[in-house]
Design goal:
The structure is a single chain. By secondary structure, this protein is an alpha/beta fold. It has a single domain, classed as LmbE-like (Rossmann fold, 3-Layer(aba) Sandwich). It has helices spanning 33-42, 64-81, 101-114, 136-151, 159-163, 193-201, 204-210, 215-231; strands spanning 10-11, 18-23, 46-51, 87-89, 118-122, 174-178, 185-188, 239-246. Strands 1-7-8-6-5-2-3-4 form an eight-stranded mixed β-sheet, sandwiched between helices. α2 links the parallel β3 (46-51) and β4 (87-89). α3 (101-114) packs across α4 and α6 runs antiparallel to α8 (215-231). InterPro entries: GlcNAc_PI_deacetylase-related, LmbE-like_dom_sf.
């Protein structure tokens, strides 16, 4: 039997200078996407992070009042490893983020502040592919980010933003969704892979609660496996995949 042809992923466009990544929780960007971020910042591009929550409900053994500050510190350290200095938190409540105008407005405001050409978010679909169910927070933030990319350019949807000095920004050219079950594009992970591993390792408190495996081994195994699997559709190079939406 002839083996089915693997559909190749296209290179993500690189003719941009500023990107904004919007996700739900600390660590969302570190599960693979940060390898692309490291390569981008090495090339002189600006990348900022906006997180809807501080991940305060993410560790069962740690009370949210203590967990939130720990995870914020780990996220800032993690971002610094891949050359990201700007990390903002919207302070929505972890685990029960609601999709709707309030979330869209907060993300549209962030887009107006940072004025990116590329917006990055995480899988907004119900599953990670097959029967692996996605979380409501990821779905809400991913969907709201796709909508907010357009909201940011419309003066009349959230007129209060302009009154606060945030003028409309219609310059978002693409929204790239990481972790999608229907990827279309990819970025070579080779230049940034080791730093992506170090970046994920900064979430040590979370990782030690998540798995009984040694964090170093867990991180290396996970990121090697995922980038290698994606690379089979990207010329055999380790890669980070995205589903790309144009505007």
């Amino acid at each position: 039997m002839t083996e089915a042809k693997i559909t190749e992923l296209l290179p993500l466009p690189d003719d941009w200078r500023r990107a904004l990544a919007v996700v739900a929780h600390p660590d969302d960007l570190e599960y693979g996407c940060s390898a692309a971020v490291a390569a981008w910042t090495d090339g002189g591009r600006e990348v900022a992070y906006v997180l809807a929550t501080r991940g305060e409900a993410g560790i069962d053994t740690l009370d949210p009042a203590r967990c939130g500050p720990v995870r914020e510190r780990e996220q800032r350290a993690s971002a610094a490893v891949v050359g990201v200095d700007t990390v903002e938190f919207l302070d929505h409540r972890d685990g029960v983020i609601e999709y709707g105008p309030a979330l869209r407005r907060d993300i549209a405001a962030a887009i107006r502040r940072h004025r990116p050409e590329l917006v990055i978010t995480l899988n907004h679909r119900d599953t990670w592919g097959g029967v692996v169910w996605n979380t409501p927070d990821h779905v809400a933030v991913g969907r709201a980010t796709l909508d907010a990319a357009a909201d940011a350019g419309n003066r009349w949807i959230f007129p209060e933003l302009a009154e606060q000095g945030l003028e409309p920004w219609n310059g978002v050219r693409w929204v790239a969704v990481a972790g999608s079950s229907a990827p279309t594009h990819a970025v070579d992970a080779t230049p940034g892979l080791e730093r992506a591993m170090r970046s994920l390792l900064e979430h040590r408190t979370y990782l030690e609660a998540l798995t009984e495996q040694e964090p170093e081994a867990y991180v290396r195994d996970f990121l090697t496996e995922t980038t290698t699997a994606t690379g089979k559709r990207f010329g055999g190079r380790p890669a980070v995949s995205f589903e790309l939406f144009g505007r």
